[in-house]
Amino acid sequence: MKIRLLVISAFLALTVSACGDDAAKKAEAAKAEAVKVAKEAAQKADEAAKKAGAAVGAAADATKEAGKEAVEATKEAGKEMVVKAADATKEAADATKEAADKTKAAVGK
User: From CA 6, how far away is CA 3, in angstroms rounded?
Assistant: First the structure.
């Protein structure tokens, strides 16, 4: 949009400059204004790009942190599963031993 204004201003400045000395001054003023608007637009675009870059960086950091937390949670869950599996194995071993003892006692009678 700003570029269109710049182009239109340039054409207008050229057209007006052909009309005489007063018109030349107005054309110069229009050119100066067009340059000023173009510089402001470039500055705003640069600021917007910097803000977008910062937002992308923040999102990357948040994603990285979330990934770390997910890995930690997975490790904790894995440890818990190992403990539960060990407990279940011990209970099964105890039950097997009891059954073996009962069988031995029954056979010994």
Answer: 5
